[in-house]
Amino acid sequence: MRKIKSSIFCLTISFLFTFGIKIIAMESDAYNLCQSCHGKDLSGNEVLGSPSIAGMEEWYLLRQISNFKDGIRGTHDKDLMGLTMRLSVMNLNDKQKRSLSSKISLMKSKKLEQSIQGDLVTGEFVFQHCISCHGEFAEGDATISAPKLTGQNDWYIYRQLINFQKGIRGQHPEDLYGRQMMEMAEMFNEEMFRDVTAYISQIDQAPSEDR
To answer: Which of 53, 61, 75, 134 has the most CB atoms around it within 10 Å of its CB?
Structure first.
């Protein structure tokens, strides 16, 4: 009987060890897949249309990964990058999604180059409509599930504003926050999107003591 129990114990330990190794390997593969598009330091790749995700809020990363997997985001035929993201996360389970979100959120984000120019006066005017959710310094507000806008590529912010306006993003009935953004985006034109994007970039480039 002792030998049987000992054998069962050894088999159990062996299974758990092997299973744990497989989970670690799968999580590593998922992270490597992120790097293939978002860059080694996850600071984004404009050529591929992949934004900076290093240092994003864990809860926001988890929500967006889940939205892609569940078809709440990334199903519009004009959202090529979204479709790509959806395919990338389709096989992740809940544990892997949480682990991946946690790992990415702990990465240090880097200063990003400003590529979009605009009228900062108009941009500041438009940004007044963003403050109630995203904060005075675009720092975000987790209590109302509004992500930070700083630390993000300006070309990505600009593209997402257009996507919201055109209904490429935010149309799904379960995308509550996306629908809110759609309604906000309808108030402005593409030139004003450039202006507010440039204004947000200016906030991001300012020394922290000036904020």
So the answer is: 53
Which pTM does this prediction carry? 0.84
Amino acid residing at 201? S
115 is a domain residue: yes
Cα torsion 15, 90, 177, 34 to 10°: value is 80
In degrees, rounded to 5, the angle at the alpha carbon of residue 108 between the alpha carbons of residues 144 and 118 is 65
Structural domain total, the chain: 1
Q: Spell 72-99 as b/e; 16+ CB within 10 A means b.
A: bbbebeebebbeebbebbeebeeebbbb
Domain-located, residue 33: no
Annotate 24-33 with b (16+ C-beta within 10 A) or e (fewer): eebbeebeee
26 belongs to a structural domain:
no
Residue at token pair 């050529």:
47
Residue 112, domain member (yes or no): yes
Domain extent, residue 108, equals 40-206
Cβ-proximal residues to 187 (8 Å cutoff; 6+ apart), any chain: 129
**Model confidence pLDDT, tens digit, residues 107-119:** 998 889 999 999 9
